[in-house]
Amino acid sequence: MPDAEPLVRFHQVTPGGRAPQRADRAAGGTLPTRAFRYCEAATTASGFGWLVFPPIGLALVWDGTEIHWTWDGADAWHPLAVAQFPGFRDRFDAAVPDGVRGFSPPLIGALPEPGLVNLWSGLFARSRPGWSLLVRPPVNLPRPAGFEVFEGLVEADRWFGPLFVNLRLTRTHAPVRFDPDLPMFQVQPIPREAYAEDALNTFPVVEGLDGMAAADWADYERSVVAPRRGGQCPVGRHATEVRRRRRTAA
What we know:
single chain; 250 residues; alpha+beta; Deoxyuridine 5'-Triphosphate Nucleotidohydrolase, Chain A; 5-stranded antiparallel sheet; 20% helix
């Protein structure tokens, strides 16, 4: 449907940063070749959504009590409370309507809990009506040392504002670097009905083999048993079937 509302629309409002990009089925080339060729589950998960990058190179250091930060182009470390993207406040106030002036979103802030930080991507985001955005660590990419990303679901069709992430620093007394060319988090579109309470609270659990229906056994035979008859199991059979269905649908 070429005229359908896109699943997400990003607004990149801070200057100079790397734009979001479609997530890579090879997880940036880090997946083993065998997994990339034959494990459709891993490649589909890796390519589901968009990668988001820091809007500027920056570093944090936490001594267990206080956090200091610096950024590319700065000549010193600064105590972190709440800080703006360098030079952005004036740019924001010069461009926005009168009622919005003075309310530029901060780039980074230290949260009340020890070692927790809120970091803005430099993006605003709006999702398709009825869809939310799952903010999570990049899928199947090696985790950078020194911090963990909190996951969150944003109803970005109803709430339009800065797309940010909350981080937990896990290392003290050594700088934690955020490289502007390395993804900071991944955004995935989720239909709101997928996490509705009624949907999540309905999950039958069938106990014992006697609870399997004839259709269940027929599907098990087709998926697991049939490919292995005769002592053989074609490598990547499931991946080939899934990719064929996608080509047919396209």
